[in-house]
Every structure is written in structure tokens, then in C-alpha cells.
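Exercise 7. Predict the joint structure of the components listed below.
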Amino acid sequence: MRVGICGAGFVAQAHAHSYAAQPDVEIAVIVDPRLEHAERLATRYGAAVSPEFAALLAPDVDAVSICTPTPTHAALAIAAMRAGKHVLCEKPIARTVPEAEAMLTVAGETGVVFTVGHVARFEDDHRKAQEIVARGDLGQLRMASQSITGPFPDWSAHGWFADAAQSGGPVLDLAIHSFDYLLWLFQDRVVRVSAVGVREKIAVDGYALVSLRFENGGIGLVEVSWLHPRGQGLLVRNELVGTEGRLCWDYDGIAALQVVKDDGRHNHTMVPGGWNVQTAGFLRSIREGTAPLVTGHEALDALRVALAALESLEWGRAVSLV
Amino acid sequence: MAADPIRVGLLSYAHLGHAVGYSSALNRLDGARFAAIYDEDADRGRAMANRFGVPDYYPDAESVLDRDDIQAVVVCSPTNTHARLVTAAARAGKHVLCEKPIATSLADANAMIAACDAAGVQLHIPFVLRFFPMVQRARQMIEAGEIGTIYGMIGGNRGIPPLPPSYPAWITDPDQAGGGALMDHSVHVTDVMRYLSGTEATRVFAECGTLFRDDLSVDDGAILLVTFDEAIAASVDPSWSIPKANPFHYDFYLRILGSDGMIVLDETRSSLQVTRPGKGDRSFVLESFGPEADLDAVRHFIHCIRQGEHLPPAATGTDGLRALEIALAAYESARTGQPVAIADLVSDA
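Solution:
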């Protein structure tokens, strides 16, 4: 199988690394208008480079990873799908609901495999927790909270993260992982979203607390932040409570590897290795013609929740999704 | 020469756990004398008088309040009867330590505050978290500017559902308790948030429901989103969401994010992880070595009476009122599905 990667930034490296770890997969081309970024990545994997998107539509490319800023996802994914390429599109699926709906329509028309990079589902800790919930150990899931907090992401191209119109701030870009994960755990739809937040340094809430109400009465809370101290790194905390039991974990607690130096203790949580599992799943869906774990519809549901949270922050009202 | 001990009466053991805690505290404090008990349940009241070596049990509160030798009372009756007992205590010239929540209605809370003001007696609400050394230290750090401007606060006080026989039935009765988990637990967290940030809640949104059990007529799960001073984003988890088999039965945590850093408070860390032959299904437990909060609150209450002044960090009746406002706004929000402004709640009251 030959794959192309659109974008050569931070997340593209993770995609490239995970493709390289799969058997019988070759990275054919890496596309980025910043040729030096593309080259830096491509030389590691013996891939060609191109500044032109059309290079991904070549007949010898089977599948494409879209690793570009959110507002470009729809146009690029649609073009790739129309050219018959299977698509693994980074999260969030798109910047707007109409764009996402158009992507789903094209995916349906072309029959290619289309999935979105909600990689948290594939991480070992998140997968294990979902197994425990799904097999009923906690009874019926009734409350869940996830906290994803960290410092401002300063790795982005042109600092597009800081542009609310493009990134939607952490409520869209980062909390989308939590919204998708909680939707997946509850297997229920969200009927109401409310949020409070803090707008500092950037023209979008850099810290927010989002409440979710599910149709069957379950309650979720998501804390997300780009304003946390750098010394904390990216920290994820989780609590799931059902009618019969309770489960909780956080990244500090599951860091099996710690490195201690004069400047302090550094926790290495081994779990963000979900990329390989995500990629393997994408390729398996292509080879076997089966549905991917993360469907476009689910990605759209997560987007709706995130956009409702942004709306709630803007207008100071709870937002109904039904 | 030691000063005479402050003579204290306790009104009702309905709030059983705390009432027993305060009773032990009164007996351990040299500066206090546990002089009289009123309890609406005669068997329980007499048994407690016996247990704590209290000479006088009365089946009515007035008999305690008529005693000229008694200077203060501790009120642990069902929440919807706080106002009646506290206003009577104030008229009798007794200082009052009244269990939380202060009352089930703003009218009751206001009446209690007014009565104590008019009588010149102190009204203490045992928001005991204020006495925790970690909370005191955090307040010093915040006041010193160590974390800069506060952006957000996320906190929780969760517990096992307070069910019979370990807990009296009134605690899960909507009229007597004024609500369920949200009323029971949110007040501790919102009080600490106010205490540490020095700000007031301006808006409240809540999701609330009976989530974990199907035999309750009050809420057992909730999430509050609270805005403080129109600027600070906060959330509170007050849920009765801890299973009986859990290593801890109650917790308190609070993370405060500021422009220059973050403070993380986690009371369950003040505990030892113990595996031993269990009682029931709890063979692994977290044994707390944390502060004896009830003792600290009562010691301070006695000290304030002796000093003739309501001294920090003790919470006042007004602090109790503020926490109640947030809880009632939360219930209103849960009813309407929209945020509620505290100003609107207060003006509509």
C-alpha cells in the first residue's frame, strides 16, 4: 500500500512514523508548500516531496493522511476522496458543520474509507477504560469527566492555533478528543452543552469548563486548557462513574517511566502510542472493506458538541442540540 | 488562673456524623464544657448524653435556651429547622455554631443572620475546609500573588450516598434537606472557592439529576459551572458518586489556575494506602491522617466567644448565605436549563 501525507508539521510526523511502522506500507509522497519541512520529514522515510496537493492524487497513491490546519480539511479531504483515495483526516473533522456534512456525502458517494484521527480512542489507557465500561463493570455509565490541560501549543505553522477563526482554540482543537471519547463511552447523544471560560492572551477562550447532558440523563464535564503552566506538560485526568462502580486515572499516575534529573522529575506516559493502532486500523479497513472504528458521523457529532461549547461561551447561554 | 470554660449546649443529633464530631470536640477542649443536649429523638438524645457524659438531656430546645449558664449552642437539626432554632437561640442570647447548609431558603438564612446581628451574638457556619492547613497555605500564596490572576477553579467534594441506617432519613428528603447531593456538598467547595479567590459568584449553571440510584427523591449527581466576579470560570462536582467499596468515602480537591501558576489541593493524598482484612468489600482503604476539621472548627468557635469577636478563618452567617445562594441558583438553573444570575435569584427572593 502506498500512502501520501498532506502537511509536514507536528502531527504529520506522528502519521509518518506510524505508517513506517506498518508492514507492506510505503510513504509515497509528503506534500507541504514549505518544501524544507516536507524534505526534513521525507528523507527519514525515503519518500518523495512536493509543494503541490495534486501529487497526492497520483494513481499510485492509495490513501492519504490530511494533516493540515482545520479550515483546510474539508476541501483537501473531498478532493482526495473524489480522486478515489482513502482518507485519514486529522481532528477536528472540519471547522464547520456544513463542511463536515459535505465530507460525509462525498465519502458515501465514492465508497472510500474515510476516518478521522480521534487517536485517544486508540491509546492503551483509553481503550482499556472503554472495555471496562462496555463490559458493564461499572454498571451503566452515568457521569464522566475528562481534563486535558497544557501550555500554549507553540509548535504550529504561522501560529494558526492562536487564530480563533481557524483553530477554535482549545475548546475545538483539544477538547474534541474528550467530546469524541465521552460520546463513544456513553453511546448516547448529547442534548445540551454549556460552558464557562477565560479569554486571555488569545481572542478565544484558552481555558474552559464544558458541561454535557446526555439524552439518557448522564452528565459529562470537560476541562480544557492552553493556559496551564509549562512545567506541567500535557496532563490528562479521567473519571468515569457508573451505577455500580467507578474508574479513574491520570497521566502522572500511569507514567511507568520517570526520569529524574537535577531540574526535576519527568514523567513519561507511554500511552500516546495510539497512532500506530489508529493507522493499523485505517489500513485494515481499506484491505478488508470494513468500517473504521471512528466514523465520519461520529466525528461530526463531536464537532457539533465543540461548536455548541464555543457558542455557549460566546453568548453565555446553554445550547440545545436537539 | 484559667478562664471559666464556655458552657455549650447541642441542639439535635439529626446531622448525626457532625453532631457526634462536635460532641467529641467539646469534651476534648479544656476551654469548653458540654453542658446540655436537646434532641427530638429522646432515645438517641439520652444515649448521647450518656456517651458524652453530658449531665442534662431535654426533649425540647427551649429548656436548653432558657439556661442562663449556657453561653453557646451547636445546631445540628434538619436543615429546614435551622432558622427556628437559631433565631430562638439568638433571642436567648446564645452564640451559635450552625451546621451547613445554613438553611433551605434565602428567607430563613436572612432571618438567622438578622436575629444574631440584632442580639449581638456570633453565628458560625462550620465550613471546616477553611481550617485545613493546605487551604490556609494556599490562601497565603494566592494573596502573595504566587499564581498571579486567577483564571479558573475546578473542585469537588464527592461522597457515598448518605442512606439509612448509617444516615438519618431526613438527609435524602427534599423538604427537610432542601435538596440532595448538590445542596449537601456544593456548599463546602463554593465556600472554599470564595475564601481563596476573594470573589463572589455572579452566575451559575447546573446539570443535576438522580443518576446512580432509582430509589431517591433527591439529586445524587450534579455538575455546577460557576462564574466568579464575571471573570473566573469554575466548576464544582458535589455528587454522591462514590461507591461503598471505594478506598475513600469522601474527597475534596480543588485546582486553581492562575496567570503565573496553578495550585492543586487534594485531601485524599493525606492518607495511607492500607490493605488489610476488610470490613465487607473494603480490604483496600485510604486511611486519612488529615486534620480533625470538626475539632478545629469547634476550638475556634470557643476561642471567638472568649475573644468576643468573630475571627477569621471562621465562616459567618453571610458566608453560609452566599453558599446557599449558589446552590439555589444551581437548582433553578437545572430546572430551566439555562444559567442563572445570582443577582436575579436574590432580587426575586
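Discussion. The interface with chain A takes residues 151-152, 154, 203, 205, 207, 209, 211-213, 221-223, 225-227, 231-235, 237, 239, 241-243, 245-246, 257, 259, 261-262, 337-339 of chain B (CB under 8 Å).
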